[in-house]
Fold this protein.
Amino acid sequence: MRLPALIALWMGALSTLGWAQTTKAPPLLAPESWPRLPQRLVEMGLQAAKAPDWLVSIGSFAAAAATVVAVFLTAFALLSLIERKTLARAQNRIGPNRAGIFGILQPVADGIKMLTKEDIVPTKSEWFLHLLAPVLIVIPSILALSVIPYGRDWLPVPMELGMLFFFAVGTMTEIAVFIAGWASGSKFPMLGAMRAISQMVSYELPLIISAMGVVMLSGTLSLSGIVEAQAGFHLGFIPAWYVLTPWGFVAGFIFLIAANAESNRCPFDLPEGESEIVAGHMTEYSGFKYALFFMGEYLGLFAISGLGITLFLGGWQPPLPGLACVPSWIWFFGKLAVVIFFFLWVRATFPRVRIDQLMRFAWLCLIPVSLLTVPVAAIWQYSGGGALGWLLCSAILLIPFVILTVRFNRRMATSNRRYTFAE
């Protein structure tokens, strides 16, 4: 049932491309429209060739998709270098410094290495599924990136159910992880896949629940509509972003933690723990297939960070009044850079948790608090959002949080372990 639903959503998106073309757009060479320049050039070329409307729509969609893929593949290569440099700085090391000036060509060297490494396929594996799993890891991230509004005039696929589509394609990742573990024909990848799936399913719940308050207050599942609902300023200078409300701050913080776990980032990177014997569901992969898993992980990090920016940080809205003259897509990517750097900072700071700690934290802390943000968002809406709303919402959120924290730390956490070593 999931595949027909996704196909229907895509058909609806293609039908709206014609509507998007009829809306008033800024001049072709204006900074605001630079990201859409390839798409509009393709449209103008096909219209000049008197191509039918359906071909113009398909060409426009292909150009928009190619632009998004090119931008984020470049960002993936750049982030792989920035992350290694950041971790090196945090650990008092130099980091990549051999390939190119200051190591700037290290991503190119890594790509060449992965392309030229031997592709080893286990004898007992299902070779077709073994090949298909890395591809299925990358595809959901690319599809999710296509529905995020990156600017006032840059929405690759306008979709009224954009957030629903985002979470729908995100669930395909669990299927790809299961295929990777099962098709390898080995016990260790299968056990690693089961652990990864349990983590992803557990943290999808607080991720989705924390976004429900945003849907309630904005009244739409359209990601561009959610951004428009956060337009304007309170008191003339405070952005009307949902994160600057009591329920939005808590929901955004929960979303951030769950997104970190969904992206398989430290301290939740248990599926491929470097300190363990195997690499989870990727144990039997090598060469470029292995690189595809990490490409999907980084693209998924971009996608989930972009969704969090759209839901809680106003998307492409400027942070201060009077800055609307700056192209809106610059604000979006500026916020994206800050969020990505936060994830890098967390990886350089926190140690990896155990699997029991990870699951307990999701089910005993994040899910109850995320469920609480939904009625608190309703209280905030009906109280008018003034001083009374701040008082009520803060009290309702603070009391259960303290109770859950005390219970989690003192009663639910495992006691100190005692190790006995052989003489």
